[in-house]
What does this fold into?
Amino acid sequence: MKHDELWQKFLDEIASEINPASFHVWFNDLKLISFSDEQIVIEVPLQIHKKMLEENYYNLIESKLFHLTNRNYEIKFVLEKDLETPETTNIIKEEKFDTRLNPNLNFDNFMVGETNRLAKAAAMAVAENPGNKMHNPLFLYGKSGLGKTHLMHAIGNYITTHSNKKVLYTTSDDFMNDYIGVAGSSQGKNTIDYAANFKKKYRDVDILIIDDIQYLVGAEKTQQEFFHTFNNLYQANKQIIISSDRSPEDLKILEERLRSRFMCGLPVDIYPPDFDLRCRIIKNKLEYTTLKDRIGEDIIEYIANSCTNDVRFLEGAINRLMAYTAMVVPEKIDLEFACEALKDFVNKNIYSTSNNIQNIQKAVADIYHITIDDLKSKKRSKKIAYPRQIAMYLCREQTDENLAKIGLEFGGRDHSTVIFAHDKINKDLKDNQELIEIIDKIKAKI
It folds into this structure.
């Protein structure tokens, strides 16, 4: 609701509570000056109005504002002459809330195809009607680089453009770090202040958008705090939007009560872009480059066929082609030139796609005659633990995944466990010929 609409509704409600004569004398000439998250400043014509409103009508005004906004405000009455003083100017200055949204990510520049059409439709439904139980929470899931974060920012930007609702975008890492700050504050007063600021940041919002929720794995106390934050917002009909690289059912290492909350709204998956969508994305990206009139359909199709995994690889291929063109300065850019420019990049893309964590786990499990579930389990016998360390080592060496993601894929283990496994296998390889041969066999199976 815009401020002028809210002000008019407020006056209408006041008019329905008091007699017309009193309303005309004390409220008819009031002006709304500023409206921040914590304070409302109202201009009054005379000092007597200020005195009367503060002493006789303050509770009524406060209750009506709470009824309309579900929030308590400090209400300040000022005279016109007071508005010129620096002190009052500082008081009524509207606080700028940092949404942390990227204004460049919106629905207009989100490319739609068959693989993400449902996700965009769900995101639009949430943006137009946040807090609706049918879409709350909205849980977007899919592999990295498919547009989940873009859609989340698009929802937030749409809501802030079309309403006065308070939107906060954050990541699970930031949420965890903020919570650790609360838990790590050692002195009583600081702890109380830090906790109050934490709750204000995450609970005093209308829409909470949290990215990469899977990284809360292993952080039990942070999960508990997020559970309470979730419930607080959900019960107040506030919208929650969550993303993950896997579905709620696959987040088995998160608390069951959290997973059940994620399932109560609308889970939507996003698939890798199909060939047609990849071609359109490439053409759209090229529109903003110096190559837009020099690239033929054959090159676009070559890139689309070579980079099938996510949008980031498409962008990387275009950037690589631009850089190579600037360095070589060819008379024309044909398919042969594009193949030469992208040969290393395309090979790397195919290599890293085929050598993902799941394939490595399967290859290791087959060589050692164990199961993938064994690798993810808590079993510590040497029969399981050493193959697990080999698998972690290969994931670190053969993929671009970060330590947290690798640990997550091995039963939610900490990143330090992955580092230890990598260092141990790396050390063993220096003087263990049998291990070298085993790893070569695993690589051949990947």
About this structure: The CA atoms of residues 100 and 332 lie 43 Å apart. The beta strands are 31-35, 39-44, 74-79, 138-141, 167-171, 207-211, 239-244, 266-269. DSSP finds 20 helices and eight strands in the chain. Residues 91-95, 350-354 have pLDDT under 50 and may be disordered.
